[in-house]
Structures are given as C-alpha cells and as structure tokens.
Specification:
The complex is a heterodimer.
Chain A lengths: L2 E4 L4 E4 L4 E3 L1 E4 L5 E7 L6 E6 L5 E4 L2 E4 L9 E3 L8 E8 L7 E3 L3 E6 L1
Parallel strand pairs in A: 2-12
Antiparallel strand pairs in A: 1-4, 3-9, 5-6, 5-10, 7-8, 8-9, 10-11, 10-12
Chain B lengths: L3 E4 L2 E4 L5 E7 L4 E9 L5 E8 L5 E2 L8 E7 L2 E6 L8 E9 L10 E2 L3 E5 L1
Parallel strand pairs in B: 2-11
Antiparallel strand pairs in B: 1-3, 3-8, 4-5, 4-9, 5-6, 7-8, 9-10, 9-11
Classes of the chains: A mainly beta, B mainly beta.
Chain lengths: ~110, ~120
Amino acid sequence: GDSVTQMEGPVTLSEEACLTINCTYTATGYPSLFWYVQYPGEGLQLLLKATKADDKGSNKGFEATYRKETTSFHLEKGSVQVSDSAVYFCALKGSGTASKLTFGTGTRLQVTL
Amino acid sequence: GAVVSQHPSWVICKSGTSVKIECRSLDFQATTMFWYRQFPKQSLMLMATSNEGSKATYEQGVEKDKFLINHASLTLSTLTVTSAHPEDSSFYICSATPLREGLRDNEQFFGPGTRLTVL
C-alpha cells in the first residue's frame, strides 16, 4: 500500500537558518504530493502541493519538488523565522479521485532567536 | 474561507461512557468528511470516510460499532465513541472536502482536532 516516510524531529534551528525536511514515498501510479503545516492549537493547513513529476510547489518561502526518480518530496526553506515553528506533515494522495490522503509521522520544527 | 470547526476541543470522560464529537464546515458544503485519529508522535490515521446521507466507509481495523459516524447534513458530521475506554484516548481530527464547484477539487480542509481523555 501507499506509505510516506519523513525525517523524525524535532528539528531545532536558529532564525535565518536553512531548512530541509526529508520526505520519501511509496505508491503505485502517479500520486499527488502535499506538505501540510500544523501550528500550535490549530488544524492542519495545506502548505504546498505538486501533482506530477518535476512540479515544484511553493508557498510562504517554502518549496518542494516532486522527484519521481528518487520518490522524494523534500521541504526546503532558505531562511526560517520563529513564526515557522510548527509540525510539518508530508502526505500523498493516490491517482484516483476518491483516494485518501496518506500521511507521514510529522516533523516538529522549532525556530529560536 | 473553507473553515472547519470541531466541538469540543477537548473532553475528559469516565470509562464506559459515550462521547460525541462534532465536525462542521462553516462556510462551505462538504460532500465528504473524513475522521482521523492521531497518537502522540505518530501520523494521522484515517478511521472512516463519510458522505452526506449514506453510511460511512470504515478503514480496516476500525470498529464501526465502536466509532459511530453520522453525516446528517452537508455541513455536519458527528463521531460518537461508544463505551469509551482508556485506550480510546487520542486526538481526533476531522476534515471536509467541498463540493466541486467553487473551490479546488478534492482538497481537504482540516478541523483543529479534539483531544479525548478517558479515565
């Protein structure tokens, strides 16, 4: 079945440091890939997505590129801020319209001054 | 837009009692709502998918008589944990998918979650 593996946290960075959170997946066909963010006390919010190979999703300075050859969708940001502190979830959705989301375990990011 | 609320945000109950959790789409009509369970430091696990006016589809290993789901309208789904026990303590999250017209297809909008503690 479908699965998502992402790096364990927590990840602690100083403000303005570079961020990479690794995500790899296993799926049949051509899934869509997502990054969700969960701020403290809030629900998951879609951060960015990519629906086909080589697509790059981007939002709020975050980027991730759909790499089919390495089955990866790593999340990157060049300069993190304290306000980026949250839990980040990588997820995939199978190619059928009724397919469910499959999530990774989440990575907690803590950014300090 | 596309806000999903859950009520209550947290609940503590005694073992053997039943607990109802509500999930509402506040500014859109939801064809489909999903219920997830999240254990500490683990991923969201899909429990069931519900469509308005029809029976929910449960994932393998989820007891449908234990976790009753009612999707009575296009804006409300409820999850009832019946005869709750301490092992049911968890974080329950719902999400909703809008009707196709007007919003992006199939995107799920998530509620803030409900933390259930069974004593």
